[in-house]
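Q: Can I see a sequence and its folded structure?
A: Here is a first one.
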Amino acid sequence: MIVCVCKRVSDRKIRELTHEGVCSLEQLQACTGVGTQCGQCVPAACRALLEGAVQPVPVRNAAVLTR
């Protein structure tokens, strides 16, 4: 879903960035420009940022964890 229409940023992109270490609105704005034009998307962007921070990163190879 598109979170920021002005900058064409999706919730998926925001969650991907949280997995890469983005953990604040300021960092998200620096990476994507979200919330820097009209500002209407800031609440939705913050929700997506929080959702990305609390969801576990998928494990690619579960066999590695069992060793």
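Q: Show me another, different protein.
A: A second, unrelated one:
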Amino acid sequence: LTVLDRLADKDAKDKIASKTHTIEVLPKTFGIGGLVAPAVGFVGQPHATELILFYLPLNAAKQPSAEVTISVLDVNNKPVVPAVVYEFPRDLPVGTDLVKENFVPIRYPMFLNRPGRFTVDIYAKDKVQNKEARLSYTLTVLELSGK
């Protein structure tokens, strides 16, 4: 990363700063990514968690065998509502060709009906190669007061 300070004096010795950071590129593997989920919401507001399930292993028929379970838990880790389970291939969007492009977008809508601090837990299980992935985030729901 190199940064150029265009407002610095042209002879300034710190006009350009650089930083190098080594990263590791992991091999393609089954997982959850592309999470879009606001961490704060308000009572009465719709909310949606969006994510991508990618690199699903395929069986001999070129189909996945996987489940994604999304749970909303309270501060005591107790479920607030029954978990939602997406099953693949049953819930694949029409026209999905995982041989060509191996990812599945998932959207989980919620209606925020009470204030509190919650954990949204996303668990994915591949049954073809017995792989798992898990991702969770904290959702804080605030009450708006008219006072």
